[in-house]
Amino acid sequence: MKNIFCRLFKNKLRGKISQKGISGNIKSVCNMKENIFADTSFSRLTPHFSLERAGAMHVALCDSVGSYFRHWCRAFTLAEVLVTLGIIGVVAAITMPTLIDNHQKKVAATRLEKFYSMMSQAVYQWVGDTGFIPGTTYNFPENTKYNGKGLEQWYNANLGKYIKSTSQVSTDSGMFVAFADGSGFNAYQSGGNMFFFFCIEAKYCNTQASSSEGYFDGKRTFLFDFVNGDFYASLPGQQNMSREELLRACKYGNSDNSEVSSKGRRHTCTRLIQIDGWQIKDDYPWSQIMLEKK
C-alpha cells in the first residue's frame, strides 16, 4: 500500500514543478515512520482504501509537502455541507414562488395581448367584408342567444373564418374554442353582446357549461366583449375608467353591480392590463384573495 501511494503521489506532483525541488519532500513522505500505512480498511462510501487511524495520512501529508501544496489538503466537513445545503433550500423556498408568479404573469400578459390582437384583426376583416359600420347597432340572429349550436354556426360564418383554432365545441348556452398555444375561450351571446371568457390555458375553460354566467377571475380567465362591430378588453362602459377605478374594481370584483363583490367575476382586470401596456404590474391583485365589501 505504501509503495502504491508513493508512486501515485509522485505522479501527481510530477509536471507541477521540477523533480529536483520536491524530491526531498516525496522521500520524507514515503519514509514517514509515524504513519501506519498498513492499517487500512475499505469504506463503501469511498472508492479507495483509507487509514483506520482517522486523519493520520491527511495530517502527515499536509505537514510534509510544504505550504505550496497545502491547499490540496483543505476539505469541507459533513456539517458544513449540510448547513450550506440547508441555506440553499431556504433561499429556494423563498424565491421560487416569486419566480413562478412572475413567469405566470408574463405568460398571461403575452397571451392576452395576442388574443386581443387576433380578435381585433378578425373583427376588422369582418367589418371590411360585410360593410358593417362599427358603432351602429348590430343584431345577432335570434338563434344565437344562449344557444351553443346557433352561436357556433354564426361564429364559423363570420369571425371564425379569420381565426385559426385547433378545436371547438358547442355547449348548452355557448361555445368553446381552443388555440395552438394552449389557450382558449368560452363565449355566449346575449343582448347584442358576444361575451368572450379567455382562458390562459384551455383547461381552465368550462367546456361543459350549462349556465350563461361567465367566469373571469383575472388570473386564469379574463373578460372580453364583441358588440356593435368593436372588440373590447372588459366591457364598453369600462373603457373610460381611470386606472385607480379599474384597479379597485379588479380587486373587489363584481356581479354586474360594482357595490357587490362576487368571487370569480372581475370585469375590469382585462382593461387594467391593457392600459398598463399589456403588463401585469406589481400592484395588480394577482395572488390576492377576493376582497369582500361590507
Question: What do you see in this structure?
Answer:
With 294 residues, the chain is of the alpha+beta class. It has seven helices and eight strands, in the order H-H-E-E-H-H-H-E-E-E-E-E-E-H-H. It has helices at 2-13, 19-30, 56-64, 78-130, 148-157, 243-252, 269-275; strands spanning 40-42, 49-51, 167-170, 175-178, 184-190, 193-199, 221-227, 230-233. A six-stranded antiparallel β-sheet has the order 3-4-5-6-7-8. A two-stranded antiparallel sheet has the order 1-2. Strand 1 and strand 2 (49-51) form a beta hairpin. Helix 1 runs antiparallel to helix 2 and helix 6 runs antiparallel to helix 7 (269-275). The longest helix is centred in the middle third of the chain and has 53 residues, at 78-130. Mean pLDDT is 78; it is low at 16-24, 32-39, 41-59 and 208-213.
How many strands? 8
Please state the average pLDDT score. 78
> Ends: how far apart?
83 Å
Number of helices: 7
Q: Give helix % range.
A: 25-40%
Radius of gyration, in Å, reads 35 Å
| Approximate strand percentage | 5-15%
Order of helices and strands: HHEEHHHEEEEEEHH
Largest sheet, strands/sense/barrel? 6 strands, antiparallel
